Amino acid sequence: MSSMRFCITVTPDQLRELRGLSVTPAHLAYRMGQGPHLFRTGGNPPPSGGWMVLDCRDFDGLGRTGPFCQEVVRECAARNFSGVVCDFESGRLPPLEETVAQLGRECARRNWAFLVPEHYASCSPHAQVMISSALSGGSLELRLEEAAERFGRERVVLALQRVAEDFFLPSPTGSGHPLTRQQLRQLIQERSPSIFFSRELCARYFTYMSRDSGAHFVLFDDSQTLAKKVEVARSVEISTVLGAWSDLRDVVSALGLSGPSSGRGQILR
User: Fold this and answer.
1) What is the tally of structural domains in the chain?
2) How far apart are CA 114 and CA 85, in angstroms?
3) Neighbours of 1 (CB within 10 A)
4) Are both 37 and 53 inside the same structural domain?
5) Whether residue 226 is found in the same domain as residue 205
6) Which of 74, 126, 167, 256 has the fewest CB atoms nearer than 10 Å to its CB?
7) Partners of 169 in the beta sheet?
8) Same domain, yes or no, for 31 and 94?
């Protein structure tokens, strides 16, 4: 897995934990606020090197996006950033579409990386498209192949997400109830279930019965399933992985990020 490029989203207080790892930090320190204007969280010293992650949760949809995009470009240049990740999880708003289009041009002009969620992919031909590793059905390999055919293989980025969800059966929406790692451990301890591995989803799962709510299906990741998902991405020639340090900090060895002398987790076949 050494040929994969790993980009890790990290808060300012977590940044020191990445020392010694062969990863690109993506700084969770910026937001698109009212105006719109670019705001950075406090902290000394400010981040330097890596990528900017741009959050839009505080954006009210008003104002001109052109000057805002120039603020982003100036900040990236001042901080020696070489990429921008648009963490735009809300619905497609016209001002955000305009922001993606303009930032895509600005990043391409400077040879910076530029990542967007799938629902903003059509706004910029320069953007790389984040495809989530979290599926509740289908096949991860097929999902990545379809994305590569649609956007071009060089534009696809695996967004590596560590999930644990509890689904009622049947599950008409395909959405489950998120579980914390502690809740997952407690559930496994209480139920002592037989745990299986899904080759298609690259995830572990088990079922159980509840006297109150009936049949349940639990789908979750661990170090080996995350490593397998990266292996699948590499097998279809996707070379960039983006993940959150909060999800990956305890699985760096399994992902091959902690240096040549460290052990690696077993890859599921």
Assistant:
1) 2
2) 6
3) 16
4) yes
5) no
6) 74
7) none
8) yes
Q: Which of 177, 141, 162 is nearest to 9 (CA)?
A: 162
Same domain as 101, residue 53: yes
* 8 Å CB contact between 146 and 129: no
- Look up the CATH number of the domain holding residue 183: 3.10.50.10
Q: Which residues are CB-contacts of 102 (< 8 A; sequence separation ≥ 6)?
A: 65, 66, 69
Measured between alpha carbons, how far is 190 from 180 in angstroms, rounded to an integer? 15
Phi–psi pair at 241, nearest 5 degrees: -125, 130
Phi and psi dihedrals of 23, rounded to 5?
-135, 160
Q: What is the pLDDT of residues 6-52, one digit of tens each?
A: 999 999 999 999 999 999 999 999 999 999 999 998 777 889 999 99
Using alpha carbons, list the distances in angstroms from residue 112 to 26, 40, 126, 151.
13, 20, 10, 18
